[in-house]
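Our consortium's second objective concerns turning raw sequence data into structural hypotheses that experimental partners can test. To show how far this objective has progressed, the report includes one record in full. It was chosen at random from the queue rather than selected for favorable results. The single chain below, 145 residues long, was entered without modification.
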Amino acid sequence: MTVVDLMSEAKMNVELRSKAIEKGRYELYNCFQCMRCTSGCTSMKLLELKPQCLKCTERCPQDAAPSDLITALRNLAFDMEANVPEAYLKVVSTVLEVGLIQEEQKVTSRDFEVYDREQLNLPKISKPDEIFKNNLLILLTPEED
């Protein structure tokens, strides 16, 4: 593991790492980043809402249990009362209202003429059906005990 996050140049939170490791059996140091866990990840299609298929854990040759670690990190975020980013909530509400991450945009040509998809002979964008929206709402609704 690196000491510094190369994307944000933030220092590693050692306390958070040790808390995550304490919450379960993780062989994180055995991971040699073979990428088998991500190569068949189906939860990517669901915006990482429910990573419970466990394919990553089954495929890991080093028994690193990535899905268990994701669950532990989510539980830690909940314990720390971490807030959901505002931008994420906006995207989800737009998907529920419109069916897409953002509404269809009109484009302006170099001659300052405005065109929509139909005028440019582009196919209509297929929008998710109500079943998808309902499933998304179910996934986002907290489970009660």
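The partners drew two points from this record. The helical segments are 14-22, 36-39, 55-59, 66-79, 86-98, 130-140. Residues 86-140 form one domain. Both points have been shared with the crystallography group to help prioritize constructs.
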